[in-house]
Amino acid sequence: MNIANILKKFSDLPKPMHTLIISNLFMLGHILNTTHDLKIYQYLKDKALTVEELADVSKTDKVILNKILLILYNFGFIEQVDGTKYKANDITEQLNFLHSAFIGNKVADRALCNLSKSLKTGNLAWNITYKQSFYETLNENLDLSKAFDEWNHETAKLSLYPIIPFYNFAQFKTIVDLGGGKGYFINEVLQRNKEMQGVLFDRDEVVKNAEVFLNSTNILERCKIVGGSLFKSIPEWGDIYCINRVLLNMSDDQVLQILQNCRLAMKPNAKLIIIDAVISSSTDNPTYTLTLLNDLRLYLLMGGCHRDKTEWENLLKKASFSVPKILSFEGISLFSIIEAVPIANDIKL
Hints:
The chain is of the alpha/beta class. It has helices spanning 3-11, 15-24, 26-37, 40-46, 51-58, 62-74, 90-100, 106-112, 115-121, 125-130, 134-140, 142-159, 184-192, 204-207, 210-216, 252-265, 288-302, 309-318, and strands spanning 49-50, 78-81, 85-88, 174-178, 197-202, 223-227, 240-244, 271-276, 278-279, 307-308, 321-327, 336-342.
């Protein structure tokens, strides 16, 4: 059994039951968090175990554990062996990572519990909970900052790296990766384009860890590391500037400020590509509902959001860019590549 089949079975049920099913799905989140906290995934990764064996090593109640394992199995999160034992699968591995990293981090979950206060006041749930912004918290909490960085890296493998081959980076001499973290994205691009040079730009506390990684991949000699703020000034050496999965964490005002700084730094013939979600105009798109859920999460935690084609074009126009094309990758990635070029003699600040 897998998740798609389960959801298909739900859709075949009478409509009055849909509300009942949805109201019970909140239990699934609790189950996933609990099984991670009690290292159930880790035990099943080592070898297949019966309910009794797993209850013994995890020191949990056999009756409740049996019910939980049946649910996890029916959703495809674990596998069954010989009808009596359970073991981890590829989905288990992904869940284990996601819950140890940002999406399942209890610091984030605690903030999301303040949804009602956020709804009443209009203030961000994160700010209500921690009395400061998300990025201010990252600067103070090294464990959370590390988890957020790893979350970005691992999820990039799933949705970002597969679309890199679809854009012709080879036409450029120097790429500037804005908000590039430890350099995972720029490493992928430079590995595929041996003649290119790179500039990795991010906050000082982030890029200080980039040198070790880029040196380990033999890219450091072709990549300059620069610390700074996207809100102040941006390196001027690029033929192509890339902002991938950064602006979705920002408000429109913050995005506009960053785009204006890009425009000031760019040569007339340079290009900017933004790799980000572009909300589909069709509610029938299979990713539409997922995008709506993530849009709310982004806003509550960071004040960011997902944007549709018109919203992206309007923001870029305000920063003196035109948008010749947007590449979408339905079935491959949730993200699109937005290509923007400077409008000549039209810098708006």
